[in-house]
Specification:
The protein contains seven helices and 14 strands. It has 268 residues and is α/β, with parallel strands linked by helices. It folds into two domains: 2-71, no CATH class; 93-266, Vaccinia Virus protein VP39 (Rossmann fold), CATH 3.40.50. The strands form four sheets. A seven-stranded mixed beta sheet has the order 10-9-8-11-12-14-13, sandwiched between helices. A three-stranded mixed beta sheet has the order 1-4-5, covered by helices on one side. The protein has a two-stranded antiparallel ribbon with strand order 2-3.
């Protein structure tokens, strides 16, 4: 699945028409047979996105058009099958993602009495891979298509103890955690900007939340979050502080400087 981003304000109608023709020519259904056998094309679909701002990532509600192919693609991970939409987050390195998710599950260690709060859950992958061993999975995500995929993926895999909440984590997490009194564990896998300060404060306020597994793809933003999670209580920050007890890097992006950093936090 490929999404091609262009600036509609900076391109002429002729340029856009040429772009469309070139991308339509990549449709494997129109590919010529070579040597009596169709060429092995991995491309399943191409989307066009008209983005006219200057940041390096378009908002999820930016105008997007399916030019050709399938609206969704499917991926198998840890014996579960997942539907993925173009705006939904899903790890691109599946083999390494399985290593990552096994590590998260090992450190989260849910049991039949544990509710797993999967914060910034995307298509629900992390939580759903732990559904068999947990009491309940509660996913929180701000992208509507990701919530649709997560709900669909639970049904696709026959998982009945998972539910997903649409909204920004900083807006819905405190209400979701307020008054919760059972055994629980938190999983956070935020975007590159890290967690909003209100999200870390909501996590601190949930006293039953004694264990937190943080997955960071950008360690600079993680440093800001760790200071909120671990510093002493104050007028603006209630709840006992967490302490980091284990950390491991998973090489999701070979031949680059980037890794996924997994840190286990605990508190009394």
């Amino acid at each position: 699945m490929v999404q091609c981003q262009f600036n509609g304000a900076a391109a002429s109608e002729e340029e856009l028409r040429t772009l469309r023709e070139q991308l339509l020519a990549l449709d494997p259904s129109k590919a010529e047979k070579e040597g009596g056998k169709e060429s092995q094309v991995q491309l399943r679909s191409i989307f066009l996105q008209d983005y006219r701002d200057v940041s390096n990532k378009a908002p999820y509600d930016c105008p997007t058009e399916l030019l050709w192919g399938e609206k969704h693609i499917y991926e198998t991970l840890l014996d579960l099958r997942f539907r993925v939409s173009v705006d939904s987050f899903f790890q691109v390195n599946t083999s390494a993602a399985e290593v990552l998710y096994r590590l998260i599950a090992e450190w989260a260690a849910p049991d039949p009495e544990t509710t797993v709060f999967d914060i910034c859950c995307g298509t629900g992958t992390i939580g759903l891979t732990m559904a068999k061993t947990a009491k309940e999975i509660v996913g929180i995500e701000m992208v509507p298509s990701a919530i649709e995929d997560a709900t669909f993926n639970a049904q696709l895999n026959g998982i009945t103890n998972a539910r997903f909440i649409l909204g920004k984590a900083e807006d819905v997490l405190e209400k979701t955690l307020a008054g919760f009194s059972g055994r629980c564990v938190g999983i956070v896998d935020p975007p590159r900007a890290g967690l909003h300060v209100n999200t870390t404060r909501a996590i601190r306020k949930c006293l039953p939340l004694k264990r937190l597994v943080y997955v960071s793809c950008r360690q600079g933003a993680f440093l800001d979050n760790i200071s909120e999670l671990c510093r002493s209580p104050s007028k603006t920050l209630s709840g006992a502080p967490f302490r980091p007890v284990r950390a491991m890097a998973v090489d999701m992006f070979p031949h680059t400087d980037h890794v996924e950093l997994v840190v286990l936090f605990e508190r009394d």
